[in-house]
Design a protein that fits this description.
The chain is elongated. It is of the alpha+beta class. The chain is 50% helix and 27% strand.
């Protein structure tokens, strides 16, 4: 692939993968949120440096001055790093957690019940008490109708060092 098309192809591929993260129910840990920034700078910067060197982007755009080349590289490199961060922060971490994470259970407090939303018909807003993390989880309508407007539920899912991926909400047994 020649010139700017190679840059656009990589940029679009990373952006599409990052957009897939909107459909993952995943909550990154604070350590991973910081780590993904460094990873994105390395991945995005490295990929851009390789493409800029291989495709000779400064020559392609016929830039003669050093300041014009600097602005080109800063702009396109920053954009590549930003898109790489979007791909690393949620989709990569969510897939890692689903494949390699261990099973986990949390007691969560129901804060609100909602109908509709992004990709689901019935959603509940929860707060994990041990981490003070707010999250929304899609649930089947039958469970949604039986859950209280507020109270405790059991949240099951997968957990890794990168974060938590909820799988299902279970009503707490009586007396627990």
């Amino acid at each position: 692939m020649k010139g700017f098309n190679a840059y656009l192809m990589w940029l679009c591929a990373l952006a599409l993968f990052g957009a897939c993260g909107l459909y993952f129910s995943f909550y990154p840990s604070s350590a991973w949120q910081l780590g993904s920034v460094g990873g994105a700078l390395l991945l995005g910067g490295g990929l851009y440096a390789l493409l800029a060197w291989r495709e000779r982007l400064a020559v392609l755009f016929k830039l003669d001055s050093g300041s014009a080349r600097l602005y080109l590289h800063l702009t396109l490199g920053s954009l590549m790093a930003l898109v790489a961060w979007g791909a690393l922060n949620v989709p990569v971490a969510a897939l890692y957690t689903r494949w390699f994470g261990g099973d986990a259970e949390f007691t969560a407090r129901v804060v609100a019940k909602e109908e509709g939303g992004l990709g689901c018909g019935h959603r509940i807003a929860l707060v994990l008490d041990d981490q003070a993390v707010a999250l929304g989880v899609c649930v089947p309508e039958s469970l949604w109708r039986t859950l209280p407007e507020s109270g405790d539920v059991l949240l099951q899912g997968k957990r890794s060092g990168l974060g938590f991926s909820p799988r299902q909400v279970v009503k707490l047994p009586e007396g627990r």
